[in-house]
Amino acid sequence: MEQFITVISEKRNIGFTLIPFYATLNESGTLKLIEQATKEHIQDERFDFTPAQKEVVKLLVSINEQNLFKRFSKQKNLKLFFEKLEEQFTLEHIRPVMDDKITQALEIISLSDIPVYFKDPNYSSIYSSDRIKVRALHDQPLFDFNLEPTGLKYTLKIKTETGEMGLTNREVAEITTSPCTFLINNQLFRFQNIDSKKFKPFLKVNHLIIQPRSVDAYMSSFVENCVRDFPVQANGFFINNKDARLVPLLILEHDLSQQPVFTLKFKYDDREYLAGTRSRVFVNHRKMKGHHIFDRFNRKTEEEQQIIETLIGLGLKGVSESQYRPINQQQPSTEMHQVVEWLNANAHTLAAKGIKVVQQGFEQNYYTGGVKLTMQYTEDNDWFDIKAVILIDEFKIPFQQIRQHIIRGRREFILPDKAVFIIPDEWFTKYTDLMHFVKADGEQLKLDKMHYNLLDQELLGEVSPQWQQRMEQLKQRTINYDTPDGLQATLRSYQLDGFKWMKLLNSNRFGGILADDMGLGKTIQTIALLLNQYETKAVNDSYNNAQGQLNMFDGVQGFNNSAVPASLIVMPTSLVHNWANELIKFAPNLKIYLYTGNNRTKSKEIGKILKHYHVVLTSYGIARNDIEYLKHYQFHYAILDESQNIKNPGSKIYQAVSDIQSTYKLVLTGTPIENALVDLWAQMNFVNKGLLGNLNFFKNHYAGPIEKKQDEAKEQKLRELINPFILRRTKEMVAKELPPVSEQTLVCDMTEEQQKFYEREKSGIRNELMKAIEQTGVNKNAILALQALTRLRQIANHPALVDTSYKGSSGKYEQIFEKLNNAISEHHKVLIFSSFVKDLELIEKDLIASKTKYAKLTGATGDRQKVIKSFTDDEDCRVFLISLKAGGVGLNLIEADYVFVLNPWWNPAAEAQAINRAHRIGQTKNVFVYKFIAADTIEEKIAKLQERKSALADTFITTNNPLKDLSENELRELFA
């Protein structure tokens, strides 16, 4: 019967090996070897191998003579290779590989039922008596030491189940060297972690003797290792098996590259061991009163592993088996800060787990303990008093002391004991903005209540429930107020929300920016607020002056005029009469004073007149010119309409309105940001002075990072600051009843004559501009570039805009009139917007020639209302020519349902304003918008540039100036 066996046999020049065989058992009990088992056999389904047999075959085939020859020989002859094989080469290269495979195979054999036989190379047969016993358990070496005055005598034996077995004078076959495997009397003795070299002396002698002069050194090295790794019998010295306490050590030090690193060690008694040390037993050798003592203790591997898992759970990552760094560690220059900050943040957890923190090798002593920050808020009129204290061991540090560190980004703060405290990075993220806005008051900080969003929301329990409720209302913009009785209109739901929001700001003495889309009724919401401020419970006398203008010496009837001063509304000149009409229509009880023309009272005692009125209307120009008189009156409200007019903080109009004295402030605008974030600062600083800091701070801290670096964290902080004080709703959000608006961009091919004119001009402009830029740079030639840009835009519309002698046509004009004639023939009304008045004049000539009735509104128009009325009331007036500057705001032209935008503008909001003249509340017809762009011209590049430069348009900014922050390469590309 065939069976699978393994055979131990000795091969010339390579020593003992283990070979897998097929064999048959004869009737006489003799085993006959048939053939060696190979990988081909275990892949053949005819042979029924067990998984253990397959694994043994794979291991042993890898060290058969053929495979050893392939691996280690450069010769072509196998027989010659083994004949000339040198012993040293075998010991250093071949035997380690063979020992490893044989050891693995014997481990599998010991746990399975695979027979092992010994075959003497001098005999051909194998008998049942040649079977070798292989136990599943490994054998233990036993070191027997006897320390006497004459020296240290020791022997090495094998610890067996029945006692001890010496090796002296026994026939021992060394099957493997490391780890050691012996064959003695048909039994394999398999050892772990010990090689045969330690046994060899005792094959010939019973014991060895170490001379007295060498005993101490021998005890501290060889004997200590034996006590650690093996069973030892000790005579003349002591071995204490102890239960030593584990103390984890987390050592902050430099690694080989001089970067900070955590080294984890485990301390047992007085000895420290690196994490990752393989030995499961530690031994501490000491000598006391002439006696050698070995303290032996088992490592607490489970506790050590728990420590490692704790560190990883706290955010460390291993860079080796014993060294760790914070998982979020970034730049080398900040590594020390990060590792110390990690220690500070986790100090209490480390202490609770018994992990001792040690730092060594640093010039400075870093504080590595726990840190606690406490903040208490108390209210004081319009301020929060903030008592913030940092608790660091026995030190109580007022937060005020690190305020400048937070503002300037300095991480290291020196404690009273000279230790260096690393300010947590989280504090910079959390409190930098707060520290810019607080004011120092001794060891306390004061914060204006308008900055309440900067407070730590988790600690707001320290303030009164009433103020918490008010903050929540401001955050949610929800509070109930009844609309004033005298309002002669029904507010839409979103308009009612806007009124309530403005009233909520008013009740908290805050200013605000109402930034609803054009056409959503900012005027009616503001009128509702003003009525709310002036109404009393008494029956009001009706006021119905058709002109909305009182005699300056008349008194206010039916309102509490003595307690509430007049309110001032400043607006573009074109809107003054519109505001007057709206007030008369919707709030007839409010008395209006038109501070315009001859009604201007140039006196510092202007209050004697204004106190008789509720609402004073004036223009930006008059406010600028008469501020020396207006500033002497304390208005109830100062309201700016189309407040983007004060977007330039350096302008005279901004300085003038800033001097207006009022209890409350409000601004209205559909485009709070036209050019840059500074626009927002100017308007917000008017309504809530100091909310965004001074202008330089705002530019450096918010505008620069957001506009140039797309800093999302700064953007979020700015949003949080302004959110309670700005309300913006788009038509898509709130006026869903509006009919749809369809926009189409028409790319118009230039005529051949126009194309030649454009290319000739572009070539000359580009050469002149590039030459100037090369000589003096981009910045000094910004005006020249803008002039060049404007000229090419005009030519793209029609060359006649720059050359009156041009007699050719324009591809764009041909399409404009094709669309216009179709719209007029279908009885539609059309708004035509252009940023060039000359553009409109060319269109006007063709309209006159075709006898088409039209209206025109430009900056030169005298009676705006008459022009507007001629378009809105005359059914035959089908076309309204409007310049952007004159008609971008303040017009309600819902009679029109077609809008032509003749040229692209830098600011997308400007185009939106034009469209909103027709697409606004009250419009019932679908609105169609056509935007005309000349193909292969500067206009197409402007459109692409606009997309690239307006990433923050919906968040904060719409780019109004395409040359702003343009690089030289981008400028060259624009004129290419």
Automatic annotation (TrEMBL):
Q: Which domain of life is it from?
A: Bacteria
User: Where do the Helicase ATP-binding domain residues begin and end?
Assistant: 503-690
InterPro entries, alphabetically? Answer: Helicase_ATP-bd, Helicase_C-like, P-loop_NTPase, SNF2-like_sf, SNF2/RAD54-like_C, SNF2_N, SNF2_RAD54_helicase_repair
Quote the Pfam families the UniProt record gives: Helicase_C, SNF2-rel_dom
Q: Which positions fall inside the Helicase C-terminal domain?
A: 812-967
Q: Which GO terms describe its molecular function?
A: ATP binding; DNA translocase activity; helicase activity; hydrolase activity
Sorted alphabetically, which keywords does the UniProt record give? Answer: ATP-binding, Helicase, Hydrolase, Nucleotide-binding
Provide the protein name.
DEAD/DEAH box helicase
Q: Which organism is it from?
A: Carboxylicivirga sediminis
Species lineage, top-down? Bacteria, Pseudomonadati, Bacteroidota, Bacteroidia, Marinilabiliales
